[in-house]
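Usage

Read records sequentially. Each one opens with the input sequence:
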Amino acid sequence: MIHRVSDLEFDEDRREVRVRGKALDLQPRVLEFIAYLAKNRERFVPKDELLDALWPGVIVSETSLHRAASVARTALAEAGFKGTVRNRQRHGYSLTVENGEGEGIADTPQSATLKKAIAAYHRGEWEEAIKALKKVDSVEGLSAEELRIWAHSAQCAGRPQEAHGPLERAVAAYATRGDKRNAAWAAILLAQLKVEWREPALAKGWPHRAERWLKDEPPCREQGYLDMLGARMAFMANELETSLELATRARAVGEEFGDADLEGLALVHVGEANLYLGNIREGLAAIDEAGVSVVADGLSSWAGGLIYCGVIFSCMTRADWHRASQWTEQFTRWCQDKGSAGYPGLCRMHRAEVLTVKGDLENAESEIRGTQEMLARQAPWAEGDTFRVLGDILMAKGEFSEAKKAYERAAELGWECLVDLALLHLAQDEAEAAHRLLDRALADNCFSSRSRRGQAMLHLIMAASRCGRVDDARRVLAELEGKPDLVSTSALQALFAQARAELAAAEGDTMQAIAAFRQSVRSWQAIDAPLAAAQARCRLACILGKEGDLEAAERELGAAGAVFTQSSAMGLLRQCDKLRMKLATAKAVR
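and closes with the structure output:
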């Protein structure tokens, strides 16, 4: 009698397993394993039944069964069998075949529901996929592959907390059947989730387990993903040299194995590490290539979202707002096209940053407050960043005490706020305190200063100039002039002009200070940053007032006040009005 499962047949009389008519050379126990599954092709065969059938009267551990299954799976794959041996937790083993809608689903009472789940997953209908997978799981359990599909669907549906359980079970299922590579892969995905969920101890434990599983394996893409995860964790720990080394290695693995997700993810880490190490051109090239790869190479939702976030964050930290705006729009369109609910909160956060630069503070605050709860639930690793953005918005409005609270909350959630708090002091004309914090941030080489080194150095020049530390300001200026890539964006060039103006004013070169401030105002206006231009006008008005040109000073303050009013920056408007009152008093005395 011959038993057939797709293009595999077991000839009972000849005790022979054939795939497409070609007999396979199999170990006796492996042959019996495949034969038993072929004869019981319409169901999952329990482990105990298989143990009794293959080792009658002999007591053996399940490890022997897992080994037979692993060898059978490899042999059938090498022979080109259109299916595989599947292991479903609590239900045993089955020979499964491709059905056109998903991977090998056996003919069981729950197969129709499972087929619908897999089909919904491939269509990007995440909620439908989750609902169907949960239903099947409650009746007969899910295979490791199906558990991974469940986890990914939960991430894309914006409920990453629901992905932890299925992934943990997938790791166990792969490990139990001796599939080390897939066990390591699932462990790496789980570690990625733990990183994002601010569970550092657990995040570090899973890579160690994955590394042990992959130790004796030949070169494979999973080793590249392990390096990529290491690069991300090193980056978060401010170990940029290590991050660059691991990311470069991961990229090479991605290229070798043709894994576009891995190559794109590694590229963004190569770019970020280079940028914050001061290798600006190399960093920008890698960042741009990573961003383009999301669409050009058709990356997965998981990889694409992480890459876009890295690209936009890198743009924002370099004050490259024009590029950040373009990438944010691209990110938003991509989320809509993918039907992914996993990342729109990040889109809104980045949009809030762009709106702040453009002076649309009311909408910026509405965006960031509207997304804070969403990101706390979906992406807690970004929650600290939302409070940092909120602090920036409140500082732009002149609500300094509330801005300080936001930055302090960001610090509690893991965001390093020395630079942000220094800028807050500078906005309140507390130059000495700003100088102290910026000097410390740059000396400590903390992440927030490394990621915004050019910006931090420019503000240090301004703070040092305004508190009379001219030698410090000159030293930092000389360093920046030797590293022009650190301040190569349009916004940083505008800030550079402002820093030169502050130093010229401190040195008593009033004419040079006025010219540099005017240049700064024009540069801010050219990139549609009205609030920054208005604040530069206020500083220019102070210099003009000291020079005795009260009418010109009044014009600058009038223009600045109009911008503050339009932007609802009422705190800054009050500062502007105080300056106008001083000018009016000086004018009356004259």
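Summary fields computed downstream for this record:
- DSSP finds 29 helices and six strands in the chain.
- The two ends are 115 Å apart (CA to CA).
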